[in-house]
Automatic annotation (TrEMBL):
Protein name: Nucleotide-binding universal stress UspA family protein
Gene3D superfamilies assigned: HUPs
Family, similarity comment: Belongs to the universal stress protein A family.
Annotated UspA domain residues: 1-145
InterPro entries: Rossmann-like_a/b/a_fold, Universal_stress_UspA, UspA
Stored Pfam families: Usp
Domain of life (superkingdom): Bacteria
Amino acid sequence: MFQRILVPTDGSDLSKKAVRAAIRLAAGTGARLVAFHAIPKFRTFTLDAQMLEDTAGEYRAASAARARTLLAAVAAEARKAGVACDTAHASSDQPWAAIIREAKRKRCDLVLMASHGRRGLQGVLLGSETQKVLTHSTVPVLVYR
């Protein structure tokens, strides 16, 4: 059925549920998992409080460390379930585009992602990354709610 499943994560509760669903699906089909995290690029004008407090270098270092921590947790959970898991992260102003690029780069045949990530004002201004992946991806997308 599926051989490689890309699962993007942002560390939110819904994203964690989607990760668990992706692990169950991978375990049931014998697929390999690719856990992915998109890091927003540093901006001087932003709604992200962390960017307001950090320099560009501090932000990049902290974001990469956070990505490694998030992805290590996914890999550990996958390992417990007997699922092979690769991890990757990238900086991008368009997380949806980074997700699609990584799915193609890793030759994934499915993207399994949460129905939405950001909430509140950020969600309204930035829109749904899931909706953008659904609209632009040539790789099948399974949306988890």
